[in-house]
Amino acid sequence: MHEIIKLNMLINGREVDSPHQLEVRDPGKLTDVVGTVAMGSASNVHDAVCAAHAAFQSWRLMPVHERVQSLMAGAAAMEEVSTQLATTLVREQGMLLRETQRDVNNGIKSLREMGSIAEDFLQAEQFEDEDSLVRVEKAPRGVIAAIVPWNAPMGLTMGKVGPALAAGNTLVVKPSAFAPLAVSQALKLLAGFFPPGTINVVHGDADVGSALTHHPLVRQISFTGGTKTGKAVMAAAAESIKNINLELGGNDPAIILDDADPALVVPELIKGIFPRSGQVCYAVKRVYVPARIMPSFFDALCAAVDQYQVGHGLNPLSTFAPMNNHKQYDYVLGLIAQCRQAGAIVRELGSRLEPDNWNNGLYVQPTVIKDVAPTAELVVAEQFGPAIPLVAYDTEEQALQMANDTEYGLASSIWTSDPNRGLALSSRLEAGVTFVNSHARTPLGERHMPFGGAKQSGIGRVRTPIGLAEYVEYHAISLNKKNCQPQT
Ligand code: NAD
User: Fold this and answer.
1) Ligand 1 pocket residue status of 200, Cβ below 6 Å
2) What is the pTM for the complete model shown?
3) Furthest C-alpha separation in the chain
4) Which atom of ligand 1 approaches the CA of 457 most closely?
5) Best CA proximity match to 234, nearest among 458, 471, 467
6) For the domain 252-448, what is the CATH code?
7) What are the CA-CA distances from residue 324 to residues 114, 242, 313 (Å)?
8) pLDDT tens, 112-138?
């Protein structure tokens, strides 16, 4: 038996309860209540923003190396409890333990990455001649509202906390109502390393998110979530000309070229399609396959996908976890049904590890679909779940055209045995990130690839100094030396 977790909000260093409690259930065992969180109101948002605004006045003056020390100490403390955080995350969010552990580790890595580059990056540039001195400072902006989704909540939250705090801003974080527990626990742990009010946590849903994005003292909104919500966030930001970073949805294409070897491609491709049961913003969401090799490619892909064992995220035998929430579950099942009705070939694959628990969780078997129209909703929308369509093409130009024919532009991949062909085609894809012969970052990519979306997949980038730059205001200062007393 697990103890039921009960979490309050954190405002100005104090725990704040609420009459309205949200019950969080295990998506892999819906009869289990994992915890409850105190849900916030517009008034809690106001208190949290004011606390962050007050804390900003001194936090911004703290030397960068002291800010970094706090960040690094917070990361070390998170590391000590990383297994507990990852376990809680499985139970509230549904993913496999190894996936949530990775998410927690990514969060810790983000804090450390920003801690390690902040001191160099935040140095002012200075220029001087006989008459004047010019200094370009990288100043913090003030209160950042960080709004996060449920699908990789720890990495995404810490990907905002790290750069915001290193740059001298303060924060109000709103975790997702579909995965608030581990994130809230980690933020409270981190907050202990910073002055009260530097990190505030208000739990809630769209109403709390909306109150945050409309608050006049919020100077920047760092939002990760769906494109539709991103539009509402952007409209709210316009009221008081807030800065925004938007990391939004994707409908990422993978183009298999005719020279690719399916035996090499398939094992790597499924790592890009099915992690977290397809609930990854930059997962492969549609695959373009040369018509000539479609039958053999489909068979090879189905054989590989059939190896997945679908079960609870804490079952060590599970290699495929349930979906996170009812809305996504119903949506994905509906998309599969639509394809079936339209005459597509639908293969529901993998095995059911816990048949008795199957209907007590949001389980969906990994599903591969072919003979699907390029205009089917499964192809043109972001399914965000374990159903993957294969679309046949005749020429490379046609594949490129179909891949780019979308308002999304997050990630994409090209699969080929010819690296030059792969690199040349990559440049023609409309995306923030393109991979050749994989659909995931290499260790070198982790260090050097800024991440973000083109078109309606977002505005701005995370990671690397380019990501840190999103949290600073360039402040250009000019001194006219002529009126000054000579300095002794
Ligand atoms: P969502 O847009 O429903 O919710 C995201 C967050 O916004 C939640 O905390 C939610 O409570 C809050 N919210 C909802 N309405 C709001 C409003 N009107 N104003 C302010 N905040 C509001 O998204 P989701 O279902 O939690 O997450 C899935 C989506 O996130 C997918 O589209 C996925 O592609 C995207 N995503 C993108 C990235 C990326 O890096 N580009 C990463 C992860 C997820």
Assistant:
1) no
2) 0.97
3) 86
4) 41
5) 458
6) 3.40.309.10
7) 30, 31, 11
8) 999 999 999 999 999 999 999 999 999
In angstroms, the CA 215 to CA 397 distance is: 47
Alpha helices (H) along 177-224: 181-191, 206-214
Burial class of 408 by CB neighbour count within 10 A (0 to 12, 13 to 18, 19+):
buried
Distance from residue 135's CA to the centre of ligand 1 (Å): 38
446/41 Cα distance (integer angstroms): 38
Let me know the angle formed at the C-alpha of 427 by 422 and 431, rounded to the nearest 5 degrees: 110
What is the CATH T-level fold of the domain 5-248+453-476, as seen in this structure? Aldehyde Dehydrogenase; Chain A, domain 1 (3.40.605)
Distance CA 296, CA 299 (A): 5
Burial bucket for residue 130 (CB in 10 Å: 0-12, 13-18, 19+) = exposed
| Pocket of ligand 1 contains residue 314 by CB under 6 Å | no
**Hey, where are the domains in the chain?**
5-248+453-476, 252-448
Output the six-digit token pair for 405.
């024919």
Catalytic residue among 281, 302, 354, 382: 281
User: 127 near 134, Cβ under 8 Å?
Assistant: yes
pLDDT, one tens digit per residue, over 368-414 is 999 999 999 999 999 999 999 999 999 999 999 999 999 999 999 99
